[in-house]
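ok trying again, last paste got cut off:
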Amino acid sequence: MEKTILITGITGQDGYYLAKSLLESGHKVHGTIRRTSSINTFRIDELISKYSKDGFIKLHYADLTDSSSISNLISAVKPDEIYNLAAQSHVAVSFKNPVYTTQVGTLGSLSVLEAIRSTNKFIKFYQASSSEMFGGENEVVLNENSELVPKSPYAASKVFAHHMTKIYRESYEMFCVNGILFNHESPLRGETFVTRKISRAVGRIVTELQGNLTLGNLEAKRDWGFAADFVEGMILMMQHSEPDDWVLATGETYSIKEFLTEAFSYVNLNWEDFVVYNSKYDRPNEVNYLKGDSSKAQKVLGWKPKLDFKGLVRLMVDEDIELAKQEQVLIERKLIEPTWEYSKV
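nice, full thing came through this time. structure:
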């Protein structure tokens, strides 16, 4: 049955994979975008080109912190489901811009929840919670019942939204889901995130566009999965008979150093020849270890991750090598200026 879906933050990595899956299943997708001085739809441009002419994808300018505009949008779109993915999701940036980060994370989610309650409480709601909420103080496996100990403005805002989603679910009998997703990556990950920063650097180093890579703490460990796999889990949560909280994770943890080793060895290089440490990239309050237990989602929803760690790293490196080759051609044709000085460590 065709549904109308509203996705906040549709231009992000998860927004692309979610919209793609929903559109391919025959649903109509509406997405919110922020009004900025530059167009930032590059991730979903192929979806716009393919589906907009038939009216299956439409974009709307919206500000999640403006509750009246969100309410008006929901009244106009009349969605069956809403996926709230919008956030300032870079943890390090959240320390530098805590007010904006928390406004979007708290007021944004609350604006959508309240609009649903007052407009049509039968609209299903998905809140993008985060493994960052757990804090990662100890090397333990984390599930839906683990203690939340946020260590950043981003994580704190996610904890607020997570709790408000549960409150609206329990207070108003609304279908409100919390998806607690551990780190999920792809070739569409933002270039300031460490995994993409690494794969992008490998591509540029191979094509001699970049000489080194500067990073902070290499010992932090994360449970890394493939974003497309995790998006399928999000959809399964929303189709389950009852709303609940769900952890999605691979159950395997690797350090940033291990990610570097896999990425550089894949192209027969030693990461230690290229990586430079700089303390300015360290977080003020580091999350050292995150490992998730998704047994509930696997047992009840039938979800499981498909792409393993090695496959994920290689997928990202392959894509970024091709991207670097395209960049190299543009530089040779003097259509763009090189952005990196080549200086091997």
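cool. Residues 4-185+224-248 form a domain with the Rossmann fold fold (CATH 3.40.50.720). The CA atoms of residues 5 and 29 lie 5 Å apart.
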